[in-house]
């Protein structure tokens, strides 16, 4: 893959995966923007159990989907899951737009979450396995930065619809239009090959070679006529290895890091539109403020993309998590609209920088045979945190701001400690095909 070079193929892959990643961001954040209109349509009270259930539904589906699709992609290949999850996400997203009652809407959001939960492990494994070593971390952060694009898109869409339609009607259009980017992304994905690494480990050396040749041709390169060899130890790697030995320790620390960052991030930003409304902002002003906070994510990603290749993955991730904890403290101390907006922007900048570094780091820590299973497992743990986060975030609306923010700050501090304790720097290293602790792994490190 290093000889196939970096060129048009990787940039096209980034655009395609980025489009569906932006679409997933829209779906994940959608309920926070749609909740005022849905509440008006179905008579939900602010902070009620039904409102919390609705915010939780997508994350509950993602929890199951991340584990299911991640393991399946290691067994049947990245590309099949790559296409299936996006297709189902579009179908179930549209189903929610036409939901006649709250029960149907909750089911539709669970199914949508189940579908898009598989996008994360597959997209990041694909990107990691198609990009040469020297630029891999930066491209993985670039892919994560499309989350900000989706956030800006859904905020702008919600803002525009709030001005054009009453809330109890606008939410239908918001859910329907949010499903369109996924459809475009699905059509764009059809010409992409499966991952050569995954094909090789599943015994299809011919297709692996054809995929490599496709990359090289797209980049104007020609590969030498070398045979492709499967490392013997890699072929014996099994999902159960994720919980054993050195890889088990790595998986556990990563899982806590994902859990802490996810609980804090979604606990704050899922409820932020409703929190701003509770502070007296009208619906249009709330969406405009959220749009500004989404724009603050972009410099966070840019700095993260730079630092993961200059300073390394570990220090970048831990540093952004510590900055996030500091941002929570400043948010608690802030007074006035300017102070709240400024500290919210700092949080947005720091948290998305942390997400960028974590998404770059995670797929590089798992061997190829269990890469999507591993990424799916830790992201599933994050979805468990996402299921809990609306309940914790609801404290923001019930006057217990200090308690909620103390929990979030503690999450970021624990996540930073666990990220640092992993003790492995993957910058400039080839993707692992064997378990940590093997001779090949030690030599590669």
Automatic annotation (TrEMBL):
Question: Cell membrane as a keyword?
Answer: no
Instruction: Give the main location.
Output: membrane
Chain ranges of the Major facilitator superfamily (MFS) profile domain: 13-427
Protein location: Membrane
- CDD domains given in the database record: MFS_SV2_like
The membrane spanning regions, by residue number, are 51-69, 81-100, 106-127, 139-159, 171-192, 252-273, 285-308, 315-334, 340-362, 374-397, 403-422
Membrane protein topology class: Multi-pass membrane protein
**SUPFAM superfamilies the UniProt entry points to:** MFS general substrate transporter (SSF103473)
Q: One GO CC annotation, please?
A: membrane
Keywords of the record, alphabetical order, are: Membrane, Sugar transport, Transmembrane, Transmembrane helix, Transport
Q: Which Gene3D superfamilies match?
A: MFS general substrate transporter like domains (1.20.1250.20)
Query: What is the designated name of this protein?
Result: Sugar transporter, putative
What species was this sequence derived from?
A: Deinococcus gobiensis (strain DSM 21396 / JCM 16679 / CGMCC 1.7299 / I-0)
């Amino acid at each position: 893959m290093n000889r196939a070079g970096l060129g048009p193929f990787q940039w096209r892959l980034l655009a395609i995966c980025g489009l569906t990643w932006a679409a997933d961001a829209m779906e994940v954040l959608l309920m926070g923007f749609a909740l005022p209109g849905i509440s008006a349509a179905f008579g939900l009270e602010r902070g009620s159990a039904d409102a919390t259930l609705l915010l939780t539904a997508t994350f509950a589906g993602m929890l199951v989907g991340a584990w299911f699709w991640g393991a399946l992609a290691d067994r049947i290949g990245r590309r099949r899951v790559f296409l299936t999850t996006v297709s189902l996400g579009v179908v179930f997203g549209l189903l929610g737009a036409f939901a006649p009652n709250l029960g149907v809407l909750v089911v539709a959001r669970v199914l949508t979450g189940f579908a898009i939960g598989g996008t994360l492990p597959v997209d990041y494994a694909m990107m990691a396995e198609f990009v040469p070593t020297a630029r891999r971390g930066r491209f993985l952060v670039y892919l994560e930065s499309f989350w900000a694009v989706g956030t800006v898109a859904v905020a702008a869409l919600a803002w525009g619809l709030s001005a054009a339609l009453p809330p109890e009607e606008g939410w239908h259009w918001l859910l329907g239009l949010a499903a369109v980017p996924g459809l475009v992304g699905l059509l764009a994905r059809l010409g992409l090959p499966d991952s050569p690494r995954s094909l090789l480990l599943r015994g299809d050396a011919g297709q692996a070679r054809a995929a490599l040749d496709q990359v090289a041709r797209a980049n104007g390169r020609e590969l030498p006529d070398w045979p492709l060899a499967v490392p013997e130890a890699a072929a014996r790697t099994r999902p159960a290895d994720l919980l054993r030995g050195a890889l088990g320790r790595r998986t556990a620390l990563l899982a806590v890091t994902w859990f802490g960052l996810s609980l804090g991030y979604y606990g704050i930003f899922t409820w932020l539109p409703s929190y701003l409304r509770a502070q007296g902002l009208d619906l249009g002003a709330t969406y405009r403020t959220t749009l500004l906070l989404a724009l603050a994510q972009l410099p966070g990603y840019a700095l993260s993309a730079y630092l993961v290749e200059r300073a390394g993955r570990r220090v970048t991730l831990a540093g952004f998590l510590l900055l996030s904890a500091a941002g929570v403290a400043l948010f608690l101390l802030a007074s006035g609209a300017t102070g709240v907006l400024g500290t919210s922007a700092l949080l947005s900048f720091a948290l998305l920088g942390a997400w960028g570094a974590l998404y770059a780091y995670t797929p590089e820590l798992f061997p190829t045979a269990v890469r999507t299973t591993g990424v799916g497992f830790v992201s599933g743990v994050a979805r468990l945190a996402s299921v809990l986060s609306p309940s914790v975030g609801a404290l923001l609306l019930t006057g217990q701001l200090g308690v909620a923010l103390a929990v979030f700050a503690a999450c970021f501090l624990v996540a930073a400690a666990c990220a640092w304790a992993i003790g492995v720097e993957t910058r400039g290293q080839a993707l692992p095909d064997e378990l940590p602790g093997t001779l090949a792994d030690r030599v590669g490190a």
